[in-house]
RusA family crossover junction endodeoxyribonuclease
Amino acid sequence: MHDLQPVQFVVPGDPVGKGRPRVSTIGGHARMFTPKKTASYEGLIAMVGTEAMAGRVLLECPVMVEMRIVLPVPASKTKKFKAQALAGEIFPTKKPDMDNVIKAIYDGLNGIVWKDDVQVVDAIVRKRYGEVPGVHVRIIPLLQEVA
C-alpha cells in the first residue's frame, strides 16, 4: 500500500525561475550548460524535498501539486504599495515568471519526491507578495484505480 500522506515543505529565499540552458564553446565544441543560479536553486529544492520525504519511498502514483510562490515586496516601493501588496491587493506581475518557477521546482524534485514530473496531473499555483519570500509546496498523492 502506498503512503498517501501529502509531502509539504518550503523552499526558502527568493523564488528563482528555471533558466534556459546556455551554450558556450570550449575548444571549438558547443557545450550546453545549466545557468549556475538555476543549478544551485534546484540543489536547494532537492535538499528541502529530501528532508520532507524523511525516508519515504518515491511517489509513483499521479499527484496534485499546490504551490504558493511568495515574492518579496521591492524595497524601492512606497509604504502604501507595500501595505497593499501584503494585503493581497497588488499582485506581483514581475519576474520570475510563474511557469519558470514551477519548472525549477518540478525538475528539482525528480528522483527526490517522485520518479518524474509527468506524474503531476493537477496543480494549483499562486504567485503573491509576502513578508517572507519562498515557495510553499504541497504534493498530494492521488489514488489511482488499477484497471
Observations:
- The chain has one domain: 7-141.
- The mean pLDDT is 90.
